[in-house]
Amino acid sequence: MAQSLRLQPVMTAETETIDSLDFPAPAYAVADDVADLLFREARTIASFTDQPVTDSELAAAYELLRWGPTAMNTTPLRLLVVRSAEARARLAQHVNEGNRDRVLAAPVTLVVASDPAWHRTLPVLAPHRAQMIDFFDGAAEVREQMAYQNAHIQFGYLIVALRAVGLDVGPMAGLDTAAVDAEFLSEQGWRSHLIVNVGHRDEPGTPHARAARLDYADVNLTV
Questions:
Q1: Which ranges carry the Nitroreductase domain (predicted)?
Q2: Preceding omega of 204 cis (within 30 degrees of 0)
Q3: Which residue intervals of 66-137 are DSSP H helices?
Q4: Which member of 62, 70, 85, 218 has the greatest number of CB atoms within 10 A?
């Protein structure tokens, strides 16, 4: 019977060592500074600098978020990138009054949408389910529900991915989705759900102190 070989690391007097690595805390698989960047020190930003947000940065964020799990690998999230002042003014008309100035001032606003025709990508994204295209063709309500649910899952990935590439975010609800769809998305057939202002924070970025969060003991029920 063949035996596998286990290679052992060999250190010599010439081996370079690094003593300043920030190793993860025992409870996490990432370093503390990463957890801070993505969650603990991250804030919902309302005020941004004039520094532009590049297409490369947005593409890098999508490169991360697309690997997050969705049902049947449907990945129905679609993004409308609203850059120009004219387009942001059009979008702002359909946003709740309290959020309009934030949309107008942000370098970029992403309209987070879903594609109810996601099943057309099954041959690429889930080839083992490609035979279900005909079923979903006749099940519009099922498709729309799956698109809605999984796009909202991906919305969470989007926030974390944008932070991971060094951007700050201001996610918001409170928009007339039917009006946004008619204004921007009628040709694609996408359905809008939420918006995210994206940029680089103008310190401190928010006028409010960090608020508390509920403890795990307050939010879990074990059965």
A1: 41-200
A2: yes
A3: 85-92, 97-105, 122-125, 133-137
A4: 70
Q: What is the pLDDT of residue 14?
A: 58
E strand intervals along 50-185: 77-82, 108-114, 168-172
Sign of CA dihedral 41, 44, 45, 51: positive
- Please state, in angstroms and rounded to a whole number, the distance separating the CA atoms of residues 203 and 175: 27
Domains of the chain: 42-205 (3.40.109.10)
On whether the CB atoms of residues 48 and 202 are closer than 8 A, the answer is yes
- Cα separation, 81 vs 7, in Å, equals 50
Residue ranges of alpha helices (H) inside the chain are 32-35, 55-65, 85-92, 97-105, 122-125, 133-137, 140-164, 177-180, 216-219
- Nearest CA to 81 out of 158, 147, 149 is that of 158
Instruction: Please indicate, yes or no, whether the overall pTM of this predicted structure exceeds 0.70.
Output: yes
pLDDT in tens, 145-177: 999 999 999 999 999 999 999 999 999 999 999
Q: Cα–Cα distance between 51 and 43 in angstroms, integer?
A: 18
Type of residue at 124 = V
CA angle (208, 209, 214) in 5-degree steps? 110
Distances (CA, A) of 65 to 6, 40, 212: 36, 19, 27
Number of H helices, E strands in the chain: 9, 4
The whole-number pLDDT of residue 205 equals 80
Give Cα separations from 8 to 3, 5, 19, 32, 145 (angstroms): 16, 9, 21, 29, 52
In total, the chain counts a number of residues equal to 223
